[in-house]
Amino acid sequence: MKDTGERNESVLLRKVVDEALNARRKKGQSVPLTENSDHAGVRLETIESLLMHLVGHADPSFRIHDVCLALLQDILAEAYATRRLLWESLVYLNSATQG
Question: N or C: which end of the chain has fewer CB within 10 A?
C-alpha cells in the first residue's frame, strides 16, 4: 500500500488480481510457429526424426502382435476341441452306464 499510495485495500487487491490475470493471459498465448523462425526448421526435423523412429518400431511391434494373435487363436481352438472331446466322452460314459 505504501508503494501505490492507495488507502483502500480492495482497490489494491483488485489491481493485484488484474495483474495476475494479465500475466496468465500473456503466458497462455503461444507464439505462432512460422517458417521464418530460426527454430522452425530444427523443430520440424526433430518431429520428422521422432516420427520415423516410431514408424521403425511399429513394424516389429505389428509382427509381434500378429504372432501373439496366432498363438492365442491356436490356444482357443485347442481349448474348444478339448472341451468337445470331454463332453462327448461324458455323453458316451453316461449312455453306456444307462444302457
Answer: C
Rounded CA Rg of the chain: 36
Which of 14, 10, 12, 17 lies closest to 2 in space, CA to CA? Answer: 12
Report yes or no on whether pTM surpasses 0.85: no
Confidence of residue 38 (pLDDT cuts 50, 70, 90): low
3-state secondary structure (DSSP) of residue 13? helix
C-alpha 71/C-alpha 90 separation (Å) is 28
From CA 89, how far away is CA 97, in angstroms rounded? 12
pLDDT band, very low/low/confident/very high, at 86 (cuts 50, 70, 90): very high
Angle, alpha carbons 53-57-63 (nearest 5°): 155
Burial (Cβ within 10 Å: 0-12, 13-18, ≥19) of residue 87: exposed
Residue 61 grid cell: 511391434
